[in-house]
Each structure stands twice: as C-alpha cells, then as structure tokens.
C-alpha cells in the first residue's frame, strides 16, 4: 500500500545497475501546494493584523527569493548533494532573526521544499524529509535568539548547526555504505557534510561581523519589525 502511494509521487528508473528517482507530475504539484500552504500559514500565525501579516509574508518571500538566487551561485557541488553557495543559508536564518522561530521554521521548510523542486535528490521518504524541509527548516532556529545580544550571530550558528545535524543523520542512515573502505561511516558523513557547510558558515560569519554590514542588517530589522510584538 505504501509503495503504491509512493509511486504516485516518485518515478524510479534503473540504469547501469543503479536506481534513480524523480518526481512525477503529481509529486511536483504536491510540493508546490505544500509551499503555498506554508506561505499562507506564515501570513496568518502572527494574529497581529492583516497589514503586518502582509509585511511578514513579503519579507519571508523576499528571503526565500534571495536564498534561492544565491543558491545557484555554487563553489563546488558534491556527488550526493550539498554545495558551498553564496551565503544562501543566511537569508533564511535572517527571517528567523527578524520574526522569531515560528516564522523562521516555516520559511525554512518552504525554502527546503523549493530546493527539493529545483535540485531533488531522492532515495527514501525519510531521507527527503531530513535533507529538505527539516534541514532547511532548522535554519529558522535562528529566531530563538531574535531578542538576544549578538542574536544574529548566535542564531545563524544555531540554524546552520541544526541543518548540519539533519544532513548527518540522513547521511549516516542512508548513505554510509558509500564511505571509503576502512573509514568509519559516522566520520565519513560528519566530514562529508562539513565540507560544504563549514566553509560557507565561516565566510558568512566574517561578513555579518563587519560593522557596516551588521549596522545595515540591524536597520532592516527595525523596518521589518516596526509595530510588531514578538
């Protein structure tokens, strides 16, 4: 029963002894619907009035758009998914920093589903959940520090760490068999995911720590959260 349901959304094919997966038309439509539903939820959960909810939706959508555009600027792409991008993780973390963890998590999940549409890597339903909506949703954990001193930096590091943990779990459970012979599978998945997440995180931390950049980001936060009771 589960396999029949799975086949409605995912198309499998075998080439050279290896099975590859892709979304069916129904699968693509379902993911798009989920993204739209998450954006609708973002617009109504604050309960602070139509005008402010519209502002939140605009900022969340803009953050997703910027993250998507910068995700296409890649500095290397690993064989089982993952790449160093042009600060794409930051824009999702920043939405969490602006509006708190609820909107941050929802924005991250919507962005994760969007990434799944753009560059899907399918192996197992739980792998999809871990590597896309959960991993990118964790970037929204940055919102836990939205009122904290140095909250942007601490929130970014927490969000990135959350994403890293999700990918490590997925890698260990589903891709540990690809570890080089004699290498510990956990060490393999830890190092594999660190290869692309850590360099981008370091570059981003350096950038957002620059006084002019930080001042500009804090000013945008004031504009985005005017009259917003978090």
From TrEMBL:
Key words, A-Z: Membrane, Transmembrane, Transmembrane helix
Any one Gene Ontology molecular-function term assigned to this protein's record: thiamine transmembrane transporter activity
Record-linked InterPro entries: Thia_Transptr_ThiT
Residue ranges crossing the lipid bilayer per the database entry: 26-45, 57-73, 79-98, 155-175, 195-220
Pfam families registered for this protein in UniProt: Thia_YuaJ
Cellular component annotations (GO), alphabetically ordered: plasma membrane
UniProt protein name: Thiamine transporter
């Amino acid at each position: 029963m589960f396999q029949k349901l799975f086949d409605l959304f995912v198309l499998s094919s075998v080439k050279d002894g290896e099975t590859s997966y892709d979304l069916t038309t129904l699968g693509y439509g379902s993911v798009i619907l989920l993204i739209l539903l998450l954006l609708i939820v973002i617009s109504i959960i604050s309960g602070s009035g139509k005008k402010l909810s519209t502002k939140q939706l605009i900022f969340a959508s803009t953050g997703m758009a910027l993250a998507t555009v910068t995700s296409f600027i890649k500095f290397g792409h690993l064989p089982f998914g993952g790449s160093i991008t042009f600060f794409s993780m930051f824009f999702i973390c920043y939405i969490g920093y602006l509006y708190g963890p609820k909107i941050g998590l929802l924005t991250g999940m919507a962005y994760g589903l969007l990434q799944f549409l753009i560059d899907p890597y399918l192996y197992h339903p739980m792998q999809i959940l871990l590597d896309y909506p959960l991993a990118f949703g964790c970037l929204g954990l940055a919102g836990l520090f939205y009122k904290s001193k140095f909250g942007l930096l601490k929130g970014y590091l927490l969000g990135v760490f959350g994403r890293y943990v999700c990918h490590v779990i997925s890698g260990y459970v589903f891709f540990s068999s690809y570890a080089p012979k004699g290498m510990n599978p956990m060490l393999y998945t830890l190092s594999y995911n660190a290869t692309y997440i850590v360099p981008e995180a370091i570059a981003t931390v350096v950038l957002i720590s620059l006084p002019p950049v930080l001042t500009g980001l804090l000013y945008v936060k004031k504009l985005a959260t005017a009259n917003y009771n978090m």
